[in-house]
Specification:
This protein is an alpha/beta fold and 110 residues long.
């Protein structure tokens, strides 16, 4: 279990297919139980849509990993993806995000 709190680990969630949408920000929940409950409430996406991972990376950098939404300058950023199909989209800006050593990216496939 991950110890979620304002001073340890913060978790946000974004859904991404044809459009990226913030489910919740880094500073929205402060306990592991609250985060787990919030994740369970995220609706399933349309399975026929595409996985625009690079667009999702750019979206997360601009909308999730910001001070206003709970990002901390002294903490690395972890991107974890759960995917049900192959990757689509272009890699230009996403590649720049992946090359930043303080960003860590993991993909979990079906």
């Amino acid at each position: 279990q991950i110890n979620v709190s304002p001073t340890t680990v913060r978790i946000a969630a974004v859904t991404f297919n044809n459009v990226e949408t913030t489910a919740f920000h880094l500073n929205e929940y402060s306990t592991s139980a609250d985060v787990a409950y919030a994740i369970k409430k995220i609706p399933d996406e349309d399975v026929t849509s595409t996985n625009n991972i690079d667009d999702a990376l750019v979206y997360a950098e601009a909308n999730i990993f910001t001070t206003a939404n709970g990002d901390r300058a002294d903490a690395d950023n972890f991107y974890v993806f759960s995917m049900d199909s192959g990757r689509s989209g272009t890699a230009t800006q996403g590649e720049q995000i992946r090359q930043n050593p303080s960003n860590h990216i993991f993909a979990i496939g079906k």
